[in-house]
Amino acid sequence: MSFVKSLDIQELLHDKTASYDFLKGQLTPLTPDASARRYYRLVTQTGAYVLSQQEPFCLEDNDFLNIQSFLSRSGLPMPSVVAAFPEEGIIVQQDLGDQSLESLLLPKFNWSNQDLEGIDSYQLSKEKATLYYKKAIDLICHLQQLESVNQPPREPLQEGQGAFTQKTSIIFNRKFDQEKYNFEWQWSKTHLFEGLLELKNDPYLVGQYDKDVNELSLILEKHSTRVTHRDFHSRNLMIVNDKMFMIDFQDARLGPATYDLVSLLRDCYLPFDPILEEEMKKYYFDQINQVNQANQISPISQVNQVNQSSQIKQPHSYETNKISSHNNLSLSWDEFLYLYELQALQRSIKAAGSFASFKTLKNDKRYLKYILGAFRRTHIDPSIVLLPPGLKLFFDHAEQVWTEKIKQAELV
């Protein structure tokens, strides 16, 4: 890929400069979180913008533009698109500044002490975290009410012009299915377990891992009926004048109702607080129920009506209520907890696999410090989910192997 090197946007846009004088300014490289794209802040006389560059694209086939148009027309807060130059692979969008949810809730953290507790040793401000987690959960509830509808399109986007609009969105043509989940399990197997942890010959990994995780994938796939952001964590939530905006949404797809909630509440970039997590799970459950009632959708069971002593057993024996469409969340509180725990396991192992792959593929060690926290976020409540015993033992063993590597090599 040929990336921007010039500090002058005019040199990059070649003969288009006459029509886009308002974009004349200086480019400063940004460092996005684990992105394959290049990002720059463009400061001009009229304001600041964020410029992203990727491979050249067609306007009609660009995931970011398609999803940005659909979600923004649905009332969700996100950066507006100012201009697009497909031949150069460039999209110019609104600059939301540097205040993410992570930087708002977590002061600069000192990792140099080699404390195995890492980021989880920091105590979040309960009041502030509650306030902003609720804002984020309200966005999740908004996302989960979206439907694939044929809204009248605006004029098609021409090169460089305004916002891109299609009748519907590619979100509804893809989902977290068995294939997608298994791809993520295998990615973690290759880069985390076999690569970073050197467990390639582990008997469980060789013999039973694929079967067990495939079974979990099948369970989660049945509930891939809601619009999900797909990477809903604190680095992708920006705060501007106390309003929360979503970024990095180009991989949005249908998924379980618990997917984005797990991404938020078991975020590896923020300290994990199990008490706050329980409060926010209940807040989500109440909020989505209220939204469903407002939209004349059959309400889900109230938290206070649930027999908390009910236990759901092993994944292979569990049968969930079927969800007829993405517009109906027919989950009891027990089923919600069950799916939340399974999703927490899958999402956290996926995150650990991603962090490991930066090291194995790019020799990028910046994300190694988050792996132990990701393992800890796989710890699920055995009174809600009893995992296949081999899978539980293997994950515990992998966590211990990584802990020993940290102690010996001081990788954090």
Molecular structure report:
With 412 residues, the chain is of the alpha+beta class. The strands form 3 sheets. A 5-stranded antiparallel β-sheet has the order 1-2-3-5-4. Strands 6-9 form a two-stranded antiparallel sheet. The radius of gyration is 22 Å and the shape is globular. The relative contact order is 0.12. The N terminus is likely disordered.
Describe, in short, the structure shown:
The chain has helices spanning 9-13, 63-73, 101-105, 126-143, 178-196, 203-207, 209-221, 259-265, 274-294, 333-362, 371-376, 389-409; strands spanning 25-29, 38-44, 48-53, 81-85, 90-94, 226-228, 237-240, 243-246, 253-255. With 412 residues, it is α+β, with helices and mostly antiparallel strands.
Describe how the helices and strands are arranged.
Blueprint: H1 9-13, E1 25-29, E2 38-44, E3 48-53, H2 63-73, E4 81-85, E5 90-94, H3 101-105, H4 126-143, H5 178-196, H6 203-207, H7 209-221, E6 226-228, E7 237-240, E8 243-246, E9 253-255, H8 259-265, H9 274-294, H10 333-362, H11 371-376, H12 389-409
Antiparallel strand pairs: 1-2, 2-3, 3-5, 4-5, 6-9, 7-8
